[in-house]
Amino acid sequence: MSKITKKIAMLSTAALLAIGTAQVSLADNDDFPRLESALNASKITLVQAIDIATQKQAGTVVEADFHPHRKGNPFYEVEILTSDKQLKELRIDAVTSEVIRNEVKDTGCRDSDRHHRRSH
Q1: Which partner for 18 in 55, 64, 83, 110 could form a disulfide, CB atoms 3.0-4.6 Å apart?
Q2: CATH number of the CATH domain containing 55
């Protein structure tokens, strides 16, 4: 499989997973008018947000979803596992297409926890 075909397959899979995640989280939220408004305001799709994120941060997309923000523009959140095993969280503004956050996500695993697992 070519590198481009693999990337397309990865992006398609990530997009499908993210859409499923968004639907589940929205099923718990009765604020559909706010969601509809946020989606209508969005200028980019989830797949485009994933593409923007992977251009800024190399790695494997592990999660992506849409957030209809209460204050400010809606955004997409894309989590990428880097080659050095960091989980990066990127937020892409759904209206401007700009990366508004790119930081290491706290996984809740402390260094002492990693040491404990390696030594046992």
Answers
A1: 64
A2: 3.10.450.40
